[in-house]
Design a protein that fits this description.
The protein is 35% helix and 24% strand. It is α/β, with parallel strands linked by helices. The chain has one domain (6-206): 3-Layer(aba) Sandwich (Rossmann fold).
Length: 216
């Protein structure tokens, strides 16, 4: 897993909001538009329960709070969470590695699970296994998992972006829709993909509604 340490992210928390909102190029160009599109796709209203994985300083979660949703958030950086608590005092927050064991109070099902600019730190198989876990254990039937991240429609598009943004490029585990959507579907996940600008995309994983006679 290529994820940096909690300490590195806590140090970054001091400039995080300025960095992500102030960059026009790779990797955060269009950041606000990406977050707003996640909210549009969620189509959430009270009393929708929303879990934000890798909540950071709370930039995505604050949109759902404004809609009156019940919002929960996890992050492994105490520095990021300190800022999120300041912005969002009524959100239920926990310091935890989202791929590891979760705090007991978070082990429940949610109407909507969201994440922004987190999954590219995980290798492909980690991404896929985690999405399956979220769908089976933490998303209600008829609910949605919305993953916004650095992503490209094709390998060719990724290669072009790597060449264009060579000075700011980090080799991480970026999504490629033509590869990752079929991989998700082979695991039984129902996935759609939407490209947002040159290097961001949103994966929508929908959990099928309850069938007659089936469980939760």
């Amino acid at each position: 897993m290529a994820l940096g340490s909690p300490q590195e992210f806590s140090r970054w928390s001091e400039s995080y909001d300025a960095d992500v909102c102030g960059i026009d190029g790779f990797p955060f160009g269009g950041y606000d538009s990406v977050l707003r599109r996640v909210v549009d796709l969620a189509a959430a209203d009270p009393p929708t329960s929303v879990l934000d994985l890798g909540i950071g300083t709370g930039n995505l979660a604050m949109h759902f709070v404004a809609l009156g949703c019940s919002v929960w958030g996890m992050d492994f950086s105490d520095g990021m969470l300190a800022l999120a608590r300041t912005k969002l005092p009524d959100v239920s927050l926990a310091e935890a590695d989202i791929l590891g064991p979760w705090p007991q109070e978070f082990c429940r099902r949610y109407d909507c699970i969201v994440s922004a600019y987190v999954f590219h730190h995980f290798e492909q198989q980690e991404k896929l296994d985690f999405l399956v876990r979220l769908s089976r254990e933490h998303c209600v039937r008829g609910g949605a998992i919305l993953i916004a991240d650095v992503a490209f429609p094709t390998v060719s598009a990724l290669d072009q972006a790597r060449a264009r943004w060579a000075d700011s490029w980090d080799e991480e585990h970026y999504w490629v829709a033509e590869r990752d959507v079929p991989a998700c579907e082979r695991l039984g996940l129902h996935v759609s993909y939407e490209q947002i600008g040159e290097f961001a995309g949103i994966f929508s994983v929908r959990r099928s509604p309850t069938r007659r006679g089936s469980g939760a």
